[in-house]
Amino acid sequence: MPQRPTGDTRGDHHAAMQQGLRWQVPRRFNIAQVCSRRWAEAEGASERIAVIAHSTATGGRNHSYAELQAAADRLSSALHGLGLRPGERVAIVMPQRFETAVAYMAVLQLGAVAMPLSQLFGPEALEFRLRDAEATLALCDEASIDALLSVRAACPSLRTVVGLDGAAARADQGWQALVEAAPPGFTPADTLADDPAVLIYTSGTTGQPKGALLPQRALIGNLPGFLCSQNGFGFRLADFNALASGAWDAGVDSGATSEPRFLPREGEGREGAVTSGAKPDLRGERKTQSVFWSPADWAWTGGLWDALMPTLYFGRPIVAFNGRFSPETAFDILQTHRVTHSFLFPTALKAMMKAVPQPRARYTLQLDTLMSAGEAVGDAVFAWCRDELGVIVNEMFGQTEVNYIVGNCAMNDQRSDGLGWPAKPGSMGRGYPGHRVSVIDDAGAECPPGTPGEVAVRRTDVHGDADPIFFLGYWRNEAATRAKFSGDWWRTGDMALRDEDGYLWYQGRADDVFKAAGYRIGPGEIENCLVKHPAVANAVVVPKPDAERGALVKAYVVLTPEFIAARASSTATGDEFDAQLVAQLQEHVKGQLAPYEYPKEIEFIDQLPMTTTGKVQRRVLRLQEEERARAAGLL
Q1: Which residue, 125, 373, 409, 583, is the most exposed by fewest CB within 10 angstroms?
Q2: What does the DSSP assignment read for 91-120?
Q3: E strands, 18-93, in order
Q4: How far apart are CA 247 and CA 278, in angstroms?
């Protein structure tokens, strides 16, 4: 059981970590090589676990790195035999399962471009992405074969559909038959770090999705944030700079050790500090191997770049669960597989907090580190994680185009090794080492502390070196790519305040922030306040058009099961119960925030509109309010 956090806020090493990290991006780099092949070629590959396939019936099955690479080689050979060539887009429409990891490794070592697509997509969403990307091949299982076949005729570039399990008979090719007939070995493509690797579409919270084309080197750009948000991921923290900089070679020292070696910076030898390429001492790493799990779909940035790829990069096991999320299932997975590191969305944490207020009374957990992203965690959930899970949650912020750029590295308040910085509840955190992040105004100038602006990340780090996190651009949309830059600053479209210590405080999307009666309203703070009330499971705040004040603050609220039951059994009418509860919630917010921030209107709904990544779509409710206002003649 991890040591309970003490609340110690000393030990702020952020500035030193920013100065200490120097990027070491090799000219040639391939994600599949470093995530699978190097481990499969190392000593003990058949015992080193890559993927734990969780089953509610049997507990799970382990798949080794040797098995992962062998399966990837056969699939690569089979796809090459079908005519797949480097640069072509391959749709991967599969859930969390071992074969999905195989698919990514197979496509990437071919030099083709992996295009993750969620199984939750309907025909229209699938058709748009397949047509826009001109995907030539799709890999799927029985959950997505119907949707794929329904749009097949509208996607002329799609030559081949490969089906797994129940989809095999209806697809052009059956996965199992293909790999059984394929030769066992495969010579991987010799890709450049700047070569395209992944085409992943934005979640579309603010309009039509755009394809973000990510290079092979993007994985390296994610490493500092991953290690920081996962409190070192079980490694010796003295080796942070080497582990986080991209210095890991694609092979191992021949004959001497199975430990990875490190590449020197260009022009440097192998002597000296870890930041100049020295091999780190891994003998001090924790004896209990880290185990990672997140419910985040591997078809999305959060699941792919924050979970699957970095876990495999560091040669650790990741739990795969192809099932519906529930708080009880989440705790079962954490307990069954002795999960030490996790990424859970705030919406998931809120549900877990409401369903199991005291988890350690019911479950034996080994959880050491928890990262959360997608929405603000809020201090209520932050406190629950600290007090009931025994971890200081590290909030993280990133985007499809430039991921893992801001967050925390609280180290559960044990920052004695010169790494980490305190977490401030409710804050997004600071720019991770290697990423120069600030808040800028409309003209592209940096805002002073306390002034709202747009979160932006610079093309170069504090040393002037190119930041490898940056995507190559929007797919066939150069104008949209250019529009996101102000000089060398990438505009995220997210608003924040920066305090005197450099912490960012989320204010909402640029199009989520609104004015009511002349006051600037950031939804996040009000939503966080509402969720602290025992009746509220989740909440979203949007503007309601108003003729006199421009807009009113309106909240959409999802009630907890307990209050839904209380409403049904109440002697008051439904309208009377709701009116009383609305008054309580309004007083609750008035007592915590500024008077102009309390919601003038509250509407109870069964569920909030969400993207498939678990992000709330405020835009849907905002447009709904505008449509209602038009119908009433207010607009």
Answers
A1: 583
A2: EEE--SSHHHHHHHHHHHHTT-EEEE--TT
A3: 49-55, 59-64, 89-93
A4: 9
